[in-house]
Amino acid sequence: AVLSTGNELRPPGHKLETGQIWDSNKTMLLCLFKEHGFPTVDLGIARDEPNETLAKLQEGIRCADVIVTTGSVSMGERDLLKQVLKEDFNADIHFGRVNLKPGKPTTFASCEGPDKRSILFFCLPGNPVSASVTCHLYVLPTLKRLSGQILPEGQIVKAQIQSELKLDPRVEFKRGIYQAASMETPASVHIVGGHMLSSNLLSVSTANCLVQLPSRTEERSILYKNSWVDCWLTNDL
C-alpha cells in the first residue's frame, strides 16, 4: 500500500492553489511497483495531522503487508510518521536515518498487525528523486525477497565514469546511463543532467542505473574521469 503525506499535496490534474504541488511521488511508486509485478493499494494523501495519518495507516494495515509512505520523516514540526508509528502502533523503528545522499531521512519500521501478521513500513523522503532512489535500494529488493524471487545476478555492474565529480562526505547515488562494454570500449556510464537536485524527476525518467559514488576522504575528494564505479541497474538494457 502506498501513501503520500503533506498539506501541500494535491492529486495530479487537480487545480493548484498557492503553495500547493501535485503528488508525483505516489504516481511514480505505483507505476514502479506495477512494472515489477507487485499489486498495490493507493491510500491517497494524508494531511499533516496525527489522526488522519493514523487512519490512513490503519487502512493500509488491513489490506497490505508492506506500507510505503513518502514525506513526514524529516525533523520538522509536521513530520509525524515516526511519532504515530511508535505511539499508536507500538512499532519498532529499526532505523530512522541512513548515511546516504539522497535519502538521509529514510525510515524502516515494523509492527504486529491485528491478525498477528508482520507489517513492514518503508517511510521514504518526500523529495521525488530521494523517494525513487531509496525505493530501488530498499523497498524493491525486500519485496522481491518476500515474494520468493531470486535477485538477478549482474544487477550491480562496473563501469568507467565519463565525467569528473566532487565527492560528498556520504555515499552518494547519482542517476546515470550505463552502456555495456563492446569489443573496442569498456563499459561506461554517463551522469544524467547537470542538476542533481533531489526534486528533479526528469533525470529518473531518462536514467537506466544508479551510480554509486564513494564517500569523500582526506586522501580522495574528487573522482576522476574513467574511474571505475558500481552501477545499480534499474531498467532493462
TrEMBL record:
<dbReference type="InterPro" id="IPR036425">
    <property type="entry name" value="MoaB/Mog-like_dom_sf"/>
</dbReference>
<dbReference type="GO" id="GO:0072579">
    <property type="term" value="P:glycine receptor clustering"/>
</dbReference>
<keyword id="KW-0479">Metal-binding</keyword>
<dbReference type="GO" id="GO:0097112">
    <property type="term" value="P:gamma-aminobutyric acid receptor clustering"/>
</dbReference>
<comment type="similarity">
    <text>In the N-terminal section; belongs to the MoaB/Mog family.</text>
</comment>
<dbReference type="GO" id="GO:0006777">
    <property type="term" value="P:Mo-molybdopterin cofactor biosynthetic process"/>
</dbReference>
<dbReference type="GO" id="GO:0061599">
    <property type="term" value="F:molybdopterin molybdotransferase activity"/>
</dbReference>
<comment type="similarity">
    <text>Belongs to the MoeA family.</text>
</comment>
<keyword id="KW-0460">Magnesium</keyword>
<dbReference type="GO" id="GO:0005524">
    <property type="term" value="F:ATP binding"/>
</dbReference>
<dbReference type="GO" id="GO:0098970">
    <property type="term" value="P:postsynaptic neurotransmitter receptor diffusion trapping"/>
</dbReference>
<dbReference type="GO" id="GO:0030425">
    <property type="term" value="C:dendrite"/>
</dbReference>
<dbReference type="InterPro" id="IPR008284">
    <property type="entry name" value="MoCF_biosynth_CS"/>
</dbReference>
<keyword id="KW-0500">Molybdenum</keyword>
<dbReference type="GO" id="GO:0061598">
    <property type="term" value="F:molybdopterin adenylyltransferase activity"/>
</dbReference>
<comment type="pathway">
    <text>Cofactor biosynthesis; molybdopterin biosynthesis.</text>
</comment>
<protein>
    <recommendedName>
        <fullName>molybdopterin molybdotransferase</fullName>
        <ecNumber>2.10.1.1</ecNumber>
    </recommendedName>
</protein>
<dbReference type="GO" id="GO:0099634">
    <property type="term" value="C:postsynaptic specialization membrane"/>
</dbReference>
<dbReference type="GO" id="GO:0007529">
    <property type="term" value="P:establishment of synaptic specificity at neuromuscular junction"/>
</dbReference>
<dbReference type="GO" id="GO:0046872">
    <property type="term" value="F:metal ion binding"/>
</dbReference>
<keyword id="KW-0501">Molybdenum cofactor biosynthesis</keyword>
<keyword id="KW-0808">Transferase</keyword>
<feature type="domain" description="MoaB/Mog">
    <location>
        <begin position="1"/>
        <end position="145"/>
    </location>
</feature>
<dbReference type="GO" id="GO:0005829">
    <property type="term" value="C:cytosol"/>
</dbReference>
<dbReference type="Pfam" id="PF00994">
    <property type="entry name" value="MoCF_biosynth"/>
</dbReference>
<dbReference type="InterPro" id="IPR038987">
    <property type="entry name" value="MoeA-like"/>
</dbReference>
<comment type="function">
    <text>Catalyzes two steps in the biosynthesis of the molybdenum cofactor. In the first step, molybdopterin is adenylated. Subsequently, molybdate is inserted into adenylated molybdopterin and AMP is released.</text>
</comment>
<dbReference type="InterPro" id="IPR001453">
    <property type="entry name" value="MoaB/Mog_dom"/>
</dbReference>
<dbReference type="InterPro" id="IPR036688">
    <property type="entry name" value="MoeA_C_domain_IV_sf"/>
</dbReference>
